[in-house]
Amino acid sequence: MLLFVASQWGLLIAQLMLSLSILVVVHEFGHFITAKWFGCRVEKFYLFFDPYFSLFKKKVGETEYGIGWLPLGGYVKISGMVDESMDKEQLNKPAESWEFRSKPAWQRLIIMLGGVIMNIITAFVIYMAICMVWGIKSVPNNSLKYGIAVQDSLMYDIGFKNGDKIKSVNDQPIEDFNKLPLKLILGDHAVVERDGKEETIALPENFIGQLVEKKRNRIPLATVRVEPLILFVSDSSGAKTAGMKVGDRIVAIDSTPIRFFDEIKTFVQPKKNDSVLVSYLRNGQQYSQSVLVSDEGQLGVLGAVTAHQCDSLGYAKLDTTKYGFFASIPAAAGLAKEKLSNQVAQLKKIFSPKTGGYKAVGGFKSMASIFNPYEWDWEDFWTMTAMLSILLAVMNLLPIPALDGGHVVFTLIEMITGRKPNQKILEYAQIAGMIILLALMLYANLNDFFGYGKGR
Prior knowledge:
Elements: H1 2-37, E1 42-60, E2 63-78, H2 88-91, H3 105-133, E3 136-138, E4 148-150, H4 153-158, E5 165-169, E6 172-173, H5 180-186, E7 189-194, E8 197-202, H6 207-213, E9 222-224, E10 232-233, H7 238-241, E11 249-253, E12 256-257, H8 262-268, E13 275-282, E14 285-292, E15 301-302, H9 307-313, E16 319-321, H10 325-350, H11 364-368, H12 378-396, H13 404-417, H14 423-449
Antiparallel strand pairs: 1-2, 3-16, 4-9, 5-6, 5-7, 7-8, 10-15, 11-12, 11-13, 13-14
Helix pairs in contact: 1-3, 1-12, 3-10, 3-12, 3-13, 10-12
Subcellular location: Membrane
Organism: Polluticaenibacter yanchengensis
Membrane topology: Multi-pass membrane protein
C-alpha cells in the first residue's frame, strides 16, 4: 500500500515539475524577448533559483542561461531593473542606454507584462491543440436521465436531493454538467427541477469555506444518478468475499428494494462492521448473500462513475467536439476567456473573509493533486497545464511588489504623473513584496499539511 501511494505521488510530482518548468520558461521568455526587443541587456535567464550555485549554466553572448536547484520559479535578470537580485551597485551608477531604467515607461510596461501575455498565449495554444487532437468533451446537463446523485452531505444540508435536475445557477442555465461544481461554489442560488416542479435553493456565502473546513473538498458535490449495476468490486471487500461480481445488479438490501446506486449508502452506512443481506440479479436469476460492511460503511462496489460509462449505459450523454485548425481558434479563445474569468472569480472568493475561501489556498501539494495520479494521460496533463498557465498569469498580475503586477502599478503611476518613483522606494517595495510572497507561500504550503487543506 505504501509503495502504491509513493508511486502515485511520484507520478504527480513528475507531472507538476514538468508542467511548472514549461510555464516558468514560457513566462520568463516573455520578459526576455520584450527586453531584447527594446534593446535591454539580459544578464541571466534561469529556470528555478540558484542561490550559491546552479545545476547548469552556459553563457551565450551577453546572457547566462542556467538551471537552479531551488524549484520555486525562475527569473530573468535585466540590467538596470530593481528585482529580486537587488543589485544596488549597478543601480547607483548613471543609467546606460541598454538598461531597463533608461527605457520609456511604455516600453518598461510591455516588458513587465511580457510574462503574463506569454502565459495567456500558451494557454490559448494548448487549448487549440486540445480542440484539434482530443476535442472538447462535455456532458449535456439536460441529458441526465435520472438527475443528480448527491455525494456531499453539505449539499443535503443546503437543500439538494437525489434525483434533482439542476437547471440554473445565478439564473444562468447549466449546459455542461462538468462545470456544475465550480458554478455552485461561485454562485448564490440555484434552481432545480424536483417532482416536475422548480424550486430555488440558496447557496451559502461561505460554501467553499465549509467544504474545505470539513475536509470534504476532494469529494464530488454531485454525480450522475445511476442504476445499481456493479462495474467494479474491490478485492478486499465484503462483496468480493460474498461472491459478488461485475455485472451483478443490486435489487434489494435487507429486503428493501433498491432502484438507484445512491440508495445503497442509506442502508449500509449505519451498519459499519456489520452485515447486510444483499439481493442481486445475475443472468436473470436472483441471489441473496450476507455481505460484511467495511468500517467506512461501504460494500466495496462501484457503479458507473465515468462519463464514458454513463454514456454507454444511457444515464447521460458524452459529447466530444473536435475542431479543425481555423475552427479551433475561436473555440480556444472562448476556453481561455472562460478559465480566466473563473480564476478571477475564485480569487475574489479567496480575498473575501466572509466566504472562507482563504481556507482553500494550497501550495505544491494541492497543485500536484490536480493531475492524474494513476497514469500519465497527455490530454489531462495539457488540460491542467493550460489551467495553471492562466492561474500563473492572474497571480502575477496581483498588485504586490516583487510580482509583475507590482511593477506594473509603479509604471502606471509614473505614466499618469510623469514622475519616476524614488529608487529607494522601489527597493523597499521590492523587499516588502518578497517578504509578503514568502509569507503567502509558507501559509499555502503549511495549509496543505497542517491547516484546513490537509484533507486534500
